[in-house]
Amino acid sequence: GVNWVKMSNGITDTAITEMYVKDNLIFASTLFGNIFRSTDDGKNWTSVNSGLNNTWIRCYAEIGNDILAGTDDGVYRSTSDGVNWFKLNPGFDGRTITSIQTEKSIIYTTSSDSGFHLSTDNGSSWIPRNSGLVSRNLTTMCIKGNKFWVNDYGNAPYYSTDQGLNWIRYTYGLFYSPANENYVSGPGYLYSGTGLGVFRLSDSTILNINNSNIISSGKKYYLYQNFPNPFNSSTRISYFLETNSFVSLKIYDMLGKEIKTMVSEYQDQGNHNKSFNSGDLASGIYFYKIEINGPGENRYIQTKRMVLLK
What we know:
It is a single chain. The chain is mainly beta. The chain has one helix spanning 203-208; strands at residues 16-22, 25-30, 35-38, 46-47, 57-63, 66-71, 74-78, 86-87, 97-103, 106-111, 115-119, 127-128, 138-144, 147-152, 157-160, 168-169, 182-186, 189-194, 197-202, 222-223, 234-241, 245-252, 258-267, 270-277, 284-293, 299-308. It has a 4-stranded antiparallel beta sheet, with no helix packed on it. β18 and β19 (197-202) form a beta hairpin. 34% of the residues are buried.
């Protein structure tokens, strides 16, 4: 990572959101639903979109020799190294797939609106498994040792030891920050990228986790990064209140002009989220600012940036 060289010859849409490598093939998918493939280590790229209907690809996986793609319109499969794609099970139409993994012949998915699913018949049918989850807005998944991990956006990580039949919340050491978008399984550890930095769990801790050692960590006010970001129509803004407080949440443009007031009211302690729709706003950088006035001298002010791409 010390030196980087731009390799984009043939890529006509440079808003790259996800990349994937299969053998000697490299895939780059974009915010606007394009996929480009390189067969020469990234020197040249060609479009491979047949059958995808310009949907945003968020994640990839392999099953056998085939490629799976999780999109904003369900799961697609390619049996031709990405040249042609077809949709699996129309029952997933319109669902945003945020992560996809395979284990032998089983496909596992998480989505932002319908939670955790698995398929044992190559995607012909899908089984929902969401018992114990607070919501169905899952942003990522990882299989580590004997446990499945997912992140329920705004409600921190959950794990399952029975392929998702039951989910148990686990926040020990995470300081009430949800793992925003990713887990990485490395030698000896599970790493979690969050709104408060990178956290890790050792393999020995993971193996020894049980219901009796799950405890809550200290709480605090916090404004999370919006998800998704960048976004092209709507995005979700989440925040946590330590106590019942008065909350002001506003959107601003690059010049500091107020675009919209999202919240201006007294709210109860806990996790909250608001959906922001861009409407007729132009592509560009915008800011959202929260001001929290709690009891006594408790006050919290934070501003974060978000990117609108249309």
